[in-house]
Amino acid sequence: MSEAKPAERDSRRGRAAGGSSSTGPKGSTGSVRLDGKPKVDSFHNRDGLTLKTYSWQVKNPKGVIFLVHGLNTHVRLEYLRHNVEIVSTQKAILKDADNYYIYKDSWIEHLNKSGYSVYGMDHQGHGQSDGWRNIKTNVKKFDDMVYDLIQYMNRVHDVICLSGRKDGTSGQTSRSGSSGSPTSATSPSSHMSSGSPSSLTQRNNASSWSIHNNLRNTKTPPFYIMGLSMGGNIVLRTLEILGKSKNHNAKLNVRGCICLAGMISIDELASRASYKYFFIPCSKFFATLFPTLRLTPSLYFKKYPYVNQIFNYDKIRNKKPITCKLGYELLNAIENLNNDIDHIPEDIPILFVHSRHDSACFFGGAETFFKKINTNLKELHVPDDMDHVLTMEPGNEQVLQKVLAWLSALCPPDPTPA
In which residue ranges is the amino acid composition biased (Low complexity) (predicted)? Predict the structure, then answer.
């Protein structure tokens, strides 16, 4: 397939999104939000950082998908579309920065239309979440982001169970998982419910039902985790940690994992002189003595330059390079992921999607990792003529269709109506 056709299709989609209904809260033609109006919430992680969460829910979901974003981006930026006009593979023109995220025809909308409730959060130090020591793109340990995801998944699980119990006591037969907020029902640290009498009642109910410990028999939809780039590392690392505690996954019911252009190896990037002779050899030194210094250059994608413009137009994304501490933790994350590969559960299917031409995360390393995983429930899909940002580039529609087909083969049949 030639480059022009998918690029032209993306261009038409960009223009369609920017028609008369393309409106924003500041200085634009109206006040209609284009991001699908997700339920926005937050929770405090184990270090007390406030993490922003989003959910696009459907009634009676056949599955729950957690979207995990990559480095120096955020969940809406990577999995929604953008209020730009893509005129070529070289250029995107900004239409409305104040109403930048578009649900229509996005990955999230297609997941919803296929019957999945979608949840996501901004990692600590990213998007609208707090950063370690109040510094953006900064972490104490890389695995903290993994444990944040597991904590969030537990919260979503608990609110689905809570909703199911409420439905049961009121005589309703609808399947749980399509209503409620993951934090407002279960978390004392939720900003949306703090202080009100109703929230205190909810907390007491959650405590009396021992929601975190006694709801294992409550039926919940299967959970799936999907991550792009650094997010791909996080979802695989999540499997490793769950594999070390099998009872934990028995509660969460993770039934599939999708790794998109995963940060499994950076050998290609590391071959560049600046990384090979300076950034990587000196990473521990700078992370120890100058942890908040920002030296590592930001990635630039040459194959489809308009992707860089989409990132730069975003008002929430941090425009500065990552801290030396985070850079060092990324190197540790790759090493830890490969060292603990034997802990990945054999019974959880995994789909890898990785381009041979990925300029950020080395395809050869991902392929080697794929071959080493001790499971038969794995698949490697190699898209044609793509680079790294698989949710934005020409051809992303074909990647999405592959993901949906793979999920469909895993999901149980839809329940018959009562």
Answer: 18-31, 169-201
